[in-house]
Amino acid sequence: MKDKYQQLQAMRVKALQGGGPERIEKQHEKQKLTARERIKLLLDQNTFQETGMFVEHRCRDFGMGESQFLGDGVVTGFGTVAGRLVYVFAQDFTVFGGSLSETHAEKICKVLDLALQNGAPIIGLNDSGGARIQEGVNSLGGYADIFYRNTRASGVIPQLSAIMGPCAGGAVYSPALTDFIVMVDQSSYMFVTGPNVVKTVTKEEVTSEELGGAETHARKSGVSHLVASNDVHCIAQLKKLLSYLPQNCEEKPPQLIYDPTDESRPNLDTLLPSSNVLAYDIKKVVEEIVDSGSFLEIQPTFAGNIVIGFGRLAGRSIGIVGNQPKDLAGVLDVDASKKAGRFVRFCDCFNIPLLVLVDVPGFLPGTEQEWNAIISNGAKLLYAFSEATVPRITVITRKAYGGAYDVMNSKHIGADLNYAWPTAEIAVMGAKGASEIIFRKEIEQSEDREKALLEKEQIYAAKFAHPYKASARGFIDEVIFPRETRSRLIAGFNMLEQKVQHLPKKKHGNIPL
Description:
8-stranded mixed beta sheet, 39% helix
């Protein structure tokens, strides 16, 4: 009996060594943690329960039968984060470069199945050289098995991905199917085809970092939602993100204990500039509204003309979408529409109420936008808001012009409460553009056209550049002082807490992808 116990202990020790001390040291030299170190950092102390520790690959071709490592390059299991159950897999780059084999994929599929069956988030820590080429189609099949489960779990449980090393070829599609991607700067990259293939096919010379590094995907493609400076920071971001999310689609997000106090925010009365053509930072509005220090911005360097993120309001988790006047005057364009639309759909999946802050002069004009399908991309955001059944409250701070007014969670597409500040301008377009159209003949016939245009602008503005026409029609529920915004939102979301809304029976809608 003693021998059997010793055998088990020896196997456990061997499994914990991964690819061995030399390869672990190489991982550390790259300023990267090992798979087990990452899991230890992620989960609450002594809560990790490993599955599949002794799994070995089955390949016997190309001398692979002579090279076996317990666990086969991925550590899987479950534990808790802040006392909440989560499932996790961490690819081990010290074993075959973290490459995915048939059995490696089976281990990931098992924890995905468990996460789905038990209604708990899944966190994937990706660090892999891709498919294990010695296994051929078996490894490719393993990827597809994972993709299928990612898709089945979508909207049922939160799925978080950390890219903490290479992630190339087919491997990129599993993170892409999950809800959020965090990348580590200078040590992670994602691309479908690498620099060598790009050079062969297109003659472009590009480095891995330029092609698919963290900053590239954070600023240019929008694939990455958050960028971390190192592995420790990456894990911290995952844990913070998780704190805003429920366990699954049947639950509400965790709510922190909150002691009511004076909810007036006088600073909001002075945040807007005196002229409606001057910019201001919508994030300062957000920070005044939400609980102190609770705002977590998502995709902060992509499509800066719209701001998205999570915050807390009286302890309650909310999703925030706001036009950013500091960037392109806050217009909606292709990237902003996709960025916000996907975020809205995520919040709706997981019962996270939505706060929408509106200061939008319209959609960005130009051939580039039209040729890149601003029509169907703008419709994605419209579709996302129209479909959402979570509590939705809109606050119009300043401009709300044209079709962009409709799209930004207007009353007409199902918003529950719509407030406006006295500075709000709700109209088809700005006073200058409208006057040039409506009063064109009168202006042309005037001796002083500039003076005539200015006079007509003032007439139009007095008639339309305010929130009271919309309020009179019931499109705005109330015009409020900016300082009242936080208290109104707290009361509004409290009132909407038990909201129930059912969509028409259907298999699923056909979002304009």
